[in-house]
Every structure is written in structure tokens, then in C-alpha cells.
Write a structure and sequence with these properties.
The complex is a heterodimer of chains A (342) and B (132). Chain A is an alpha+beta fold and 342 residues long. Chain A has ten helices and twelve strands. In chain B, the strands form two sheets. Chain B has a four-stranded antiparallel sheet with strand order 1-2-3-6, with no helix packed on it. In chain B, strands 5-4-7-8 form a four-stranded antiparallel sheet, with no helix packed on it. In chain B, strand 4 and strand 5 form a beta hairpin. The chains are: A alpha+beta (342), B alpha+beta (132).
Chain lengths: 342, 132
């Protein structure tokens, strides 16, 4: 967390993450160039750039889209999520190189504005075989640009979390457009079964992971809870580790119950920053700390310590013997609730 | 994610899971059958004599072959085309090959071939037609 907006709040993990990304990009591009010139020495530089950067962007987009569901399925993938924004911005830059070189090569030599040319040079919108696939790629690039441009916390704070999240969920539309851009474009001329199979496999894995992770969470949401006078039974005190949380579901929402300093407190599980799972974080310096980006909240009132202003909903708890119960009705974000003593 | 976002995610991915494979399968089924690598093998070297020459501002075309007829189309592209994505077809709309940067391209052709067409497959436009 920081008081002022900075371009990047660098730390050791981010530097390591970005170094790995940078090396991956360099190795991929060099490898692509070597393989291309080895197998087809007549390939022009423009074609090489368009293909290398386009395929790299697609590969990166697949990895990015796998990270979310993988972390929901297995927490060991969590480190990949930590700096996903840099991954996304880099992916956009790779896609932009592909897009800009394609526009220069295919649309700048005529007497029509290159952007107009993308939409009007082929008007065969009714045909699947001759569909103007570049339009699909261009629209996907616009979405990726909007996402990259608004990826900074400044925009998250100023657009509101709801708008920001809705905008960034457009990546799924961008992904669909990209896959159609490939199949209706490059694959209409390049019919290598290997490439076709690889992209098909990638799309299958992405869709399957998201659907699997989504329906896995349905089970958690619909898990039956035993109820006593409107209070939901959660667990016994011993089931919660010190400075950690136990998660439960109240009225479809996830709630994290933290044990710390001989006390218990419950807050809504979703961090106001980017929706990180607070219940997978821990208490650091007396504050619940989000595992994604380190945003902090006081367990007794769900408020970020001053001067920060983020707030999450709080819940009443009661202890009967060593059994922990929760009132499923949430208090307004930031409402103080006395922690129960163990 | 909050509950409504989780539901929206599930809905979006189920929709993508249904629609995307459908469109992809349709696209694959309708892929034109002109595998460049098999039909349009470019002839790298040639020793065949020139039977006919055609020249324009853009091209110089040499038809090479034997007394039985032309066997190779040698296309010297003088300057890069305004449509850099260009495919050469014979008079029966078989793909001969793809041309891009200026240089020499050689393609095997049928002796009875009467013309070639150069098309831009991205813009779906005919760039030029040349009678041989």
C-alpha cells in the first residue's frame, strides 16, 4: 500500500517476476527467428516480426488466463498471480507490435486511411471463409489497450472497483476475438495440423479450467451449514490457526474468520483493492493483510488503518464452548464489531 | 470475487465454452483446400530455357520450359506490391504460391496454363491478371 501513486511500487518479487518475463520474451523471439530463418530463409523481416510477436502475445494471453482459475484450484499457483498486471501490460505490448506492423504492411500503401482500410478493404462479413478477420484482431487490440492503460491503481481508485472489474473482464471477449482472428485469418492459409492443434488445445484448457474452477466454487457456496437461532456454525476454535483465517459462506458471500491475540473477528473475504481473498492472507502487525498486494484492514472494524480509506463488511460472531458461530447478516463496510475473546 | 462476479464468470465461460468450439469447427471445416506447402512448391533453381517473356512496370515474367511446353513460371517482382499479402493463382484458380518482397519467384505450372491472377487474400481483391 502507498499513499501516493507511483508508476510502479517495485520490490524484490516484482523485479524477479519481471526479469523472468523479460527473459522468456527474449528467448521466445530469438528462438522464433532462428527456427523461421532455418526453415524458410526467404522470410521477410516484416513477416517474421508480425508472426513472432503475434504468436508470443497469444501464448502470453493463454498463460495469463490460466493463472486465475489455477490459483482458485490450487493455492500453490498464487505467486504467479502476484504481478499479473505486468504480465498483461507486456502481453499488450507484444500484441501491439503485431498489430502495428500488420497495419503498416497491409494497410498503409493504399490511398485509404489505414484504420478505415481495416474495416472496409474486405466487406465479406457474411462469409466465414473470407471474413475480414483483421477487424476481430483490431477490436481485441483496442480492448487490450484499454485494459493496459487502466491497469494502474490510479484508475482502479478513480473508476471504482465495480467499473474497473467490469472493464477488465472484457479480456474474455478479447480472448474470444483473438481465437476467431486466428482461425478465420492465419489458419485459413496456414494449415499446419500442429499449429491448429496447439491453439485448439490451448483454448480447450483455458475454457475447461475456468468452467472447472467456477463450478468448484458452486460447491463451496452451496455447502450446507448447521443453523441455531439464525447463527451459522463455522468450526471449532482449534480449527483456526493463530494469525490465520477460516473461511465460510454467508448468503452466498465468502467470510473470513481470523484468530489473533486470543480473539476472533470476521470480515468479508474480498479485498477492496482487486478482489483478493483476505481469508488466505494473515495478520501482520495487527492487520489482516491481503495475500495479493498487501492491502491491510483492522480485524475489529474492517477498515484500512489511517490514512487509508478502504473498508470491508464485518460480521458478529459468538462462541459456545469451543464452537464458533457467525451471524450471516453483514454489517456495513467499516462497522466496528467487538472481537470475541477465546 | 464477490458472489455476483463469480456467477458472471461462470456464465461467460459456459457461453464461451459452447460458442467458441462451434465457430472454430465451422471455420476449420470451411478452410479452403490450398495447402501452400504441398501444391505450391517454389522452384529455387532453374536451368530451363526461356520460352516467352512478358514485362510490365511491376513484373518481368519468364515462362521457362521445353519443347513440350512451359513448366515453370519465373516472376521477377521489381518493386514491392501495394498489397504485400499476395497469392499467385493459375487459370484454374489453383494456388501457385505467395509473393511478397521484390525478388525472383519460380513456380511450377501446367503447360496448358493461359493466365495467372495475383490476389490479395486478406482484402479479398484481385491485384492483377496477366495473360501468358
Amino acid at each position: 500500500m502507498g499513499l501516493d501513486y507511483q508508476l510502479v511500487l517495485w520490490n524484490k518479487q516484482k523485479k524477479r517476476y519481471d526479469l523472468v518475463l523479460f527473459l522468456f520474451i527474449v528467448i521466445y523471439l530469438l528462438g522464433f527467428a532462428v527456427v523461421t530463418f532455418t526453415t524458410n530463409a526467404n522470410t521477410s523481416l516484416e513477416t517474421l516480426i508480425i508472426r513472432a510477436f503475434g504468436s508470443l502475445a497469444i501464448l502470453m494471453l493463454h498463460i495469463i488466463l490460466m493463472i486465475g482459475p489455477l490459483t482458485r484450484i490450487d493455492k500453490r499457483f498464487m505467486p504467479l498471480l502476484y504481478n499479473r498486471r505486468h504480465f498483461g501490460v507486456l502481453m499488450f505490448l507484444m500484441a501491439a507490435v503485431h498489430g502495428v506492423f500488420s497495419i503498416i504492411q497491409f494497410h498503409t500503401l493504399g490511398n485509404v486511411n489505414p484504420i478505415v482500410s481495416i474495416f472496409t478493404s474486405n466487406l465479406d462479413y457474411n462469409s466465414l471463409t473470407n471474413f475480414p478477420f483483421q477487424v476481430l484482431g483490431f477490436l481485441a487490440l483496442i480492448i487490450l489497450f484499454l485494459m493496459a492503460a487502466t491497469s494502474h491503481d490510479f484508475w482502479l481508485a478513480n473508476l471504482s472497483a465495480k467499473t474497473w472489474k467490469a472493464l477488465h473482464m472484457a479480456v474474455y471477449l478479447a480472448y474470444t476475438l483473438v481465437i476467431l482472428h486466428i482461425f478465420l485469418g492465419a489458419f485459413q492459409q496456414e494449415t499446419s495440423p500442429l499449429l491448429l492443434g496447439l491453439v485448439g488445445l490451448g483454448a480447450t484448457i483455458i475454457v475447461a479450467l475456468h468452467i472447472f474452477a467456477g463450478f468448484k466454487e458452486v460447491k463451496v457456496d452451496q455447502a450446507k451449514v448447521s443453523e441455531e437461532d439464525g447463527w451459522h456454525y463455522v468450526c471449532s476454535v482449534e480449527d483456526i490457526k493463530e494469525n490465520r483465517a477460516k473461511m465460510t459462506t454467508c448468503a452466498g458471500e465468502r467470510v473470513a474468520i481470523f484468530k489473533y491475540e486470543g480473539k476472533l473477528s470476521a470480515v468479508h473475504n474480498v479485498c477492496r483493492h482487486q478482489g483478493g481473498p483476505l481469508g488466505e492472507g494473515k495478520i501482520v502487525d495487527g492487520c489482516i493483510t491481503c495475500p495479493w498486494h498487501g492491502y491491510q484492514y483492522l480485524p475489529g472494524n474492517g477498515q484500512s488503518p489511517p490514512p487509508f480509506t478502504e473498508k470491508v463488511e464485518t460480521y458478529n460472531l459468538k462462541l459456545v464452548g469451543n464452537k464458533v458461530y457467525i451471524d450471516p447478516k453483514a454489517h456495513a463496510p467499516g462497522t466496528p464489531v467487538d472481537p470475541i475473546k477465546i | 470475487m464477490i458472489s455476483s462476479q463469480r456467477k458472471r464468470h461462470r456464465f461467460i465461460w459456459v457461453m464461451i465454452g459452447v460458442l467458441l468450439p462451434l465457430l472454430v469447427v465451422l471455420a476449420v471445416l470451411r478452410t479452403p483446400s490450398f495447402p501452400y506447402s504441398e501444391k505450391a512448391e517454389i522452384v529455387a533453381e532453374t536451368s530451363l530455357p526461356i520460352l516467352k517473356e512478358i514485362e510490365s512496370d511491376l513484373f518481368k515474367i519468364n515462362l521457362r520450359g521445353t519443347s513440350d511446353g512451359a513448366e515453370e513460371l519465373e516472376l521477377l517482382l521489381k518493386v514491392p506490391l501495394k498489397s504485400p499479402s499476395a497469392v499467385v493463382f493459375d487459370d484454374q484458380q489453383n494456388v501457385l504460391g505467395q509473393i511478397g518482397a521484390s525478388g525472383v519467384y519460380r513456380f511450377p505450372i501446367r503447360p496448358a496454363n493461359k493466365a495467372i491472377t495475383i490476389k490479395d487474400p486478406i482484402k479479398n481483391q484481385i491485384i492483377t491478371e496477366i495473360k501468358l
